[in-house]
């Protein structure tokens, strides 16, 4: 279902104490300052996810997710974590296909497709990331690039499964760089994504999908980005590590 959503991807940051403090502060502020129209998703490193989830339990509209997972349920995959393990500690969402996973860990559209299937199989919600590098944006071929990421990793899904997904459009040139897509650039791509979904699954499905923008979202630019018709919120990296700023971003709808 289409919801205003702000997800905080902590990446490989915070130790256990810092993670508990950050999440407690966010949960307290959100309880008194956010209305029920906004969902928050806290996405800590695996090591703190269990505790953060316990802190979040009972708080309406606050969810806890993971930054990645393997596509198998178990087995000889040293260093990996499976969707079943995430489900076992009551996480609800998993980020898949983040550009750092694609670029640093060579994840292909095919691998991400398998992860999407595995995550859905265990009733977790994939937050599927897509987005073009700077060279592609400079050539003006970003629509075709993002379309093929979505087609190759998601378009095998049934309509029912597709409707369970959250999409995050994250232009790589805007991630962690301080450069943000302009509201016009974000809106154009979000509309393009919604229209390709409409062609494949119908207008109703396209209208019901949450599409988040990611790439240097901050308290001072969130309002104009979230005001765009097809932008349903943000996937936030750096700015999710400060409780006050993160909650202020969530107050920008
Ligand atoms: C991200 O990691 O998904 C992200 C968008 O990072 P940042 O907000 O720091 O650009």
What does the secondary structure layout of this molecule look like, with pairings?
Blueprint: E1 4-9, H1 16-33, E2 38-43, H2 46-56, E3 62-66, H3 83-88, E4 93-96, H4 99-104, H5 109-121, E5 125-130, H6 134-139, H7 142-154, H8 159-162, E6 166-169, H9 183-201, H10 203-208, E7 210-214, H11 222-226, E8 233-236, H12 243-250
Phosphoenolpyruvate binds next to strand 8.
Describe this entry's structure for a reader.
This protein has 253 residues and is an alpha/beta fold. Helices cover 45% and strands 16% of the residues. The protein has 12 helices and 8 strands. It has helices spanning 16-33, 46-56, 83-88, 99-104, 109-121, 134-139, 142-154, 159-162, 183-201, 203-208, 222-226, 243-250, and strands spanning 4-9, 38-43, 62-66, 93-96, 125-130, 166-169, 210-214, 233-236. It has an 8-stranded parallel barrel, surrounded by 5 helices. Strand 3 (62-66), helix 3 and strand 4 form a beta-alpha-beta unit. Helix 1 packs parallel to helix 12, helix 5 packs across helix 7 and helix 7 packs across helix 9. It is globular. The structure holds phosphoenolpyruvate (PEP). Phosphoenolpyruvate binds at residues 9, 170, 175-176, 214-217, 235-239.
């Amino acid at each position: 279902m289409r919801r205003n959503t702000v997800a905080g991807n902590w990446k490989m940051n915070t130790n256990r104490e810092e993670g508990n403090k950050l999440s407690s502060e966010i949960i307290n502020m959100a309880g008194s300052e956010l209305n029920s129209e906004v969902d928050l998703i806290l996405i800590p490193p695996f090591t703190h996810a269990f505790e953060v989830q316990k802190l979040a339990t009972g708080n309406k509209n606050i969810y806890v997710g993971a930054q990645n997972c393997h596509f198998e349920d178990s087995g000889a995959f040293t260093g990996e974590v499976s969707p079943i393990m995430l489900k076992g500690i009551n996480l609800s969402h998993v980020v898949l296909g983040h550009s750092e996973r694609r670029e640093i860990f060579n994840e292909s559209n095919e691998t991400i497709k398998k992860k999407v299937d595995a995550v859905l199989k265990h009733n977790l919600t994939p937050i599927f990331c897509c987005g073009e590098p700077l060279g592609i944006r400079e050539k003006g071929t970003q629509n075709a690039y993002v379309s093929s990421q979505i087609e190759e990793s998601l378009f095998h899904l049934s309509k029912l499964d597709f409707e369970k997904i959250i999409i995050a459009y994250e232009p790589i040139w805007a991630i962690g760089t301080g450069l943000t897509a302009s509201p016009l650039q974000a809106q154009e791509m979000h509309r393009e994504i919604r229209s390709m979904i409409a062609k494949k699954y119908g207008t109703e499905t396209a209208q019901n999908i949450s599409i988040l923008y990611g790439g240097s979202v901050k308290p001072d630019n969130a309002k104009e980005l979230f005001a765009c018709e097809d932008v349903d919120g943000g996937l936030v990296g750096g700015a999710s590590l400060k409780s006050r700023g993160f909650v202020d971003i969530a107050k920008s709808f």
